[in-house]
């Protein structure tokens, strides 16, 4: 299983945006040190909280600070961009990152962005499909001529071939409706979803997988659960009580003031508590063992997936946030990568095998061969003198 974060990002209105950008970049440097695999960078243009307007610019900056971390647009809102420009820029990123760039796409999460651009929100999913069809054709090296009510391509082709064969990795956001899952399946590309640990979320995620698999089958693509990434936010500490204390104020502030008041998500203030979020499976707050149990439950509910993404947040201080990722790296990631079984087998064999234990006699012989009394004898002689 791969592990990464989905960096909206979420910064309070009171935050200095300049230093917030720096902190986001520093977080990706820390995540690479902590052995995370990838980071997904959002695109937003309104509402004041999610402040990255260009995932591509951020990816370029992050690529200069990291060496291994894969960097994805999470996601690029296709109705806002001409498809030739998207394809051309991501092929450039593919070269500049030596294959670390992932094109994550979607219709656009904030209706307010679409309104400012004069786009009818009800058209966004159709527009995403039209753009994605053109981008995939360009990625395949085709010469494309087509016209819609919002873009034209006339004998369009890419002037350089991708660095990655046959093209940069592509993923489609699938959240709530069938549109994203069906688009991903139709092209046989990856899928990214967000959910929770409740039974209702499990049913919704199961539907998402069915839409994806069915669309892929109809298009003649073989897809696997390894192509599906799922995301749930987490905050970890040494104890569950400590994690709750650290995360509560920031979580509830974000839920009430951003998702509730700003986006009008219907969250009632009295229901916007961390305990309600934990009970409903919307968040993982606790110890590394709690995170392991939650991800195993998510695997069982969904039938399996290939990547776990944590939605990045700033519910507490920078130091505690980084420590949460460190705990996840030290204890959760190796559990799911199968890195602990060999260590445990070796420990159990040594504990059960007398000949494998440290030999006191061999140590004493080494002292004797050197003509020196072993430490035990020296200590016993001193004790007799006393």
Walk me through what this model shows.
This protein is of the alpha/beta class and 386 residues long. The chain has two domains: 2-342, Luciferase-like domain (TIM Barrel, Alpha-Beta Barrel); 343-385, no CATH class. Helices cover 49% and strands 14% of the residues. It is built from 14 helices and 13 strands. It has helices spanning 17-33, 55-65, 83-96, 111-116, 124-139, 178-187, 199-219, 240-262, 274-279, 288-302, 318-336, 341-352, 360-369, 375-385, and strands at 2-7, 38-41, 70-73, 76-77, 101-106, 144-147, 152-156, 170-173, 190-194, 228-231, 234-236, 284-286, 307-311. An eight-stranded parallel β-barrel has the order 1-2-3-5-8-9-10-13, surrounded by six helices. A two-stranded antiparallel ribbon has the order 6-7. Strand 8 (170-173), helix 6 and strand 9 (190-194) form a beta-alpha-beta unit. The radius of gyration is 26 Å and the shape is globular. It starts with a strand and ends with a helix.
List the helices and strands and how they pair.
Elements (H helix, E strand, L loop, with lengths): L1 E6 L9 H17 L4 E4 L13 H11 L4 E4 L2 E2 L5 H14 L4 E6 L4 H6 L7 H16 L4 E4 L4 E5 L13 E4 L4 H10 L2 E5 L4 H21 L8 E4 L2 E3 L3 H23 L11 H6 L4 E3 L1 H15 L4 E5 L6 H19 L4 H12 L7 H10 L5 H11 L1
Parallel strand pairs: 1-2, 1-13, 2-3, 3-5, 4-5, 5-8, 8-9, 9-10, 10-13, 11-12
Antiparallel strand pairs: 6-7
């Amino acid at each position: 299983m791969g592990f990464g974060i989905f960096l909206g990002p979420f910064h309070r209105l009171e935050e200095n945006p300049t230093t917030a950008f720096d902190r986001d970049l520093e977080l990706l440097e820390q995540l690479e040190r902590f052995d995370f695999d990838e980071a997904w960078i959002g695109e937003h243009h309104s509402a004041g909280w999610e402040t990255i307007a260009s995932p591509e610019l951020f990816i370029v900056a992050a690529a200069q600070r990291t060496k291994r971390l894969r960097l994805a647009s999470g996601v690029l809102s296709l109705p806002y961009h001409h498809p030739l420009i998207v394809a051309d820029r991501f092929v450039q990123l593919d070269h500049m990152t030596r294959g670390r760039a992932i094109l994550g796409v979607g219709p656009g999460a904030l209706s307010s962005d679409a309104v400012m651009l004069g786009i009818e929100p009800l058209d966004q999913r159709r527009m995403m499909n039209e753009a994605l069809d053109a981008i995939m054709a360009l990625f395949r090296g085709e010469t494309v001529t087509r016209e819609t009510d919002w873009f034209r391509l006339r004998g369009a082709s890419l002037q350089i071939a991708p660095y990655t064969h046959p093209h940069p990795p592509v993923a489609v956001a699938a959240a709530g409706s069938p549109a994203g899952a069906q688009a991903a399946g139709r092209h046989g590309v990856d899928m990214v979803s967000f959910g929770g640990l409740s039974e209702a979320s499990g049913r919704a995620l199961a539907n998402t997988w069915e839409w994806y698999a069915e669309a892929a089958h109809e298009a003649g693509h073989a897809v696997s659960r390894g192509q599906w990434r799922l995301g749930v936010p987490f905050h970890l500490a040494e104890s569950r009580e400590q994690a709750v204390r650290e995360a509560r104020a920031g979580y509830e502030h974000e839920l009430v003031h951003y998702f509730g008041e700003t986006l009008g998500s219907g969250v009632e203030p009295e229901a916007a508590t961390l305990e309600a979020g934990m009970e409903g499976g919307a968040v993982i707050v606790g110890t590394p063992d709690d995170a392991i149990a939650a991800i195993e439950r998510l695997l069982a509910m969904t039938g399996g997936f290939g990547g776990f993404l944590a939605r990045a947040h700033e519910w507490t201080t920078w130091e505690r946030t980084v420590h949460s990722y460190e705990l996840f790296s030290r204890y959760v990631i190796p559990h799911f990568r199968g890195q602990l079984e060999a260590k445990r087998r070796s420990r159990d064999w040594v504990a059960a095998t007398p000949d494998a234990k440290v030999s006191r006699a061999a140590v004493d012989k080494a002292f004797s061969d050197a003509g020196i009394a072993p430490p035990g004898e020296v200590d016993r002689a001193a004790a007799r003198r006393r």
